[in-house]
Design brief:
- The protein has helices spanning about 15-20, 55-60, 115-130, 140-145, 155-160, 160-170, 175-190, 200-220, 225-245, 250-270, 275-290, 300-315, 320-335, 340-360, 365-375; strands at about 1-5, 10-15, 100, 115, 380, 390-395, 400-405, 415-420, 425-430, 435-440, 450-460, 465-470, 475-480, 485.
- With about 500 residues, it is of the alpha+beta class.
- Helix 7 (about 175-190) packs parallel to helix 9.
- The longest helix is centred in the middle third of the chain and has 21 residues, at about 200-220.
Length: about 500
């Protein structure tokens, strides 16, 4: 299970299985349950936000045939080539204990190899130097390669966990770090529970009670705020997620109350946590909409602006892993808002960048590729028929379109059929933002060849509302006969 660790208000995630032997005993016991595989460690790291992936992102990625359960696997695992040496002690081959050279980051060639013992010693020395100079402790030295500036992956990251916890546990002799870890363990378990199941609901309510008791107890600890503020806010957020799952008005009202507490705590923390406060405001609005019986996502513009600001924040900080994670979140939110072209272009760049920096097996690359596959699906319908299909390609010079479907609510691709239909009968899907090209227009022939995504359908006029790609262009209403599905987006430089 992944746990949140805070040092000087910077949170890190580690596996509880790696630290159980390190922690001191506490009334709130460590639980052995596993956090779902789609919550990867690095997605829970960040100075400006501890936000989890939006639930919608998880839903979207689960639709892809590519599983993220392997995303924590090796990024750049390979045996050292002949002549490779430890970049720290400069010695070739195993260390004195027989442990081999290791590397699991984004370094290439013969660079980046080191003995685990040397990496641990280096990380501890960096942390001690910063403490001696009264500077912010550089916990990244335990989990981030100083050569390629990227996070360690897989076994190497796990192997650095116990030394990390042991070092920082020594900085908190009163056991505050242990308390933070155990509260985070309870939060992770809350996210696993299904509140609609009675046994899970009972366990979840007990966990929430324990978390609230810990909050009351910890408020008495002097100088706890540096370690505790974000954990308290995240405790409220996870409690809200749990009660939202009950789906009754009472559960939704309780969830709203916890979200309000999280919002207020982020307001007190200030600084970059204003992003988290805004996210809580959006979540509160979403719960209020459900209480009113509204259907669909509310406040899309505010949500997109929030994730754009988060992405910009990470770009400014310069951590490639965080930039990629934030870009994936932003692309997903754009996709949900039917802004498919923007989402696909952004995610295409992210996939290319992650592949070059980290390789194809890095969990950032795997996550980005998985979501890109979902976004590139072109959903359509057939004139006069109900149901949705995925358009795969054109045949016979565009006269025929190859379709797959029909698509069920819980999609099972193996049960779908593949067949050809007349392209003239194919209509884009306005609830999925299907990209289209305008053609055959006579009165507005200057729009022919332009592309955009379909976001609305006007039944009374039998026209789709297409938002054209390009700044300053207004949406246009177009008949189905003048729209053609776009499977591959053209390069921006090739657009007029």
């Amino acid at each position: 299970m992944f746990l949140f660790i805070s040092v000087n208000s910077v949170f890190f995630c580690v596996r509880s299985s790696q630290v159980e032997g390190t922690l001191r005993s506490s009334p709130l016991s460590i639980r052995s349950s596993l956090i779902p595989s789609h919550f990867s460690a690095d997605l829970l790291i960040g100075e400006c936000s501890l936000s989890l992936l939006p639930i919608s992102t998880l839903d979207a990625i689960s639709m892809s045939s590519t599983s993220l359960s392997s995303s924590s696997s090796s990024a750049n695992v390979s045996p050292p080539p002949d002549g490779a040496s430890c970049w720290l002690c400069l010695e070739e081959g195993p260390d004195d204990s027989g442990a081999p050279l290791v590397r699991n980051c984004s370094c290439r060639g013969s660079s980046g190899f080191a003995h685990l013992s040397c990496i641990i010693e280096y990380a501890e020395n960096i942390a001690r130097q910063n403490i001696q100079h009264d500077e912010e402790t550089d916990s990244n030295a335990f989990f981030n390669c100083p050569n390629c500036k990227q996070d360690y992956q897989g076994d190497l990251r796990d192997d650095m966990t116990s030394p990390f916890v042991a070092f920082y546990d020594s900085l908190f002799p009163d056991g505050n770090l242990n308390k933070a870890l155990q509260m985070s363990d309870a939060m992770c378990r809350l996210l696993e529970l299904d509140a609609s199941i009675e046994t899970d609901r009972i366990e979840g309510e007990e966990l929430v009670t324990e978390l609230l008791a810990s909050i009351d107890e910890n408020e008495k600890i002097q100088d706890w705020d540096l370690l505790y503020g974000m954990i308290e806010a995240k405790s409220y957020f996870c409690s809200a997620r749990f009660y939202e799952g009950i789906s009754s008005d009472e559960g939704l009202k309780t969830a709203k109350s916890f979200l309000q507490k999280a919002r207020d705590k982020y307001s007190i923390l200030g600084g970059n946590h204003d992003l988290d406060r805004r996210e809580m405001e959006i979540e509160i609005g979403r719960i209020e909409s459900r209480l009113r019986g509204s259907i669909g996502r509310q406040g899309k513009a505010a949500e997109i602006k929030l994730f754009q600001d988060k992405y910009d924040c990470y770009v400014k900080d310069g951590n490639d892993v965080c930039i990629i994670d934030a870009g994936i979140d932003l692309a997903n939110v754009l996709h949900i808002a039917n802004r498919t072209i923007e989402a696909e272009r952004l995610l295409g760049k992210i996939v290319t960048t992650s592949h070059l920096l980290h390789g194809p097996e890095h969990r950032c690359t795997v996550a980005a590729v998985s979501l890109l596959k979902v976004i590139k699906q072109r959903w359509v319908s057939l004139e006069g028929e109900e149901g949705w299909y995925e358009a795969l390609r054109f045949e016979n010079d565009g006269g025929k379109c190859v379709l797959q479907g029909p698509i069920k609510e819980q999609r099972v691709v193996d049960e779908e059929q593949t067949f050809e239909a007349d392209s003239a009968q194919v209509r884009p899907c306005h609830i999925r933002g299907t990209p289209v090209e305008l053609y055959g227009l006579k009165k507005a022939d200057h729009l022919n060849g332009m592309i955009g995504d379909v976001r609305e359908y006007c039944d009374s006029t039998n026209r789709f509302v297409v938002h054209l790609e390009g700044k300053g262009l207004k949406p246009v209403k177009v008949k189905p006969a003048n729209l053609r599905v776009v499977f591959e987006l053209p390069d921006l430089e090739n657009l007029d």
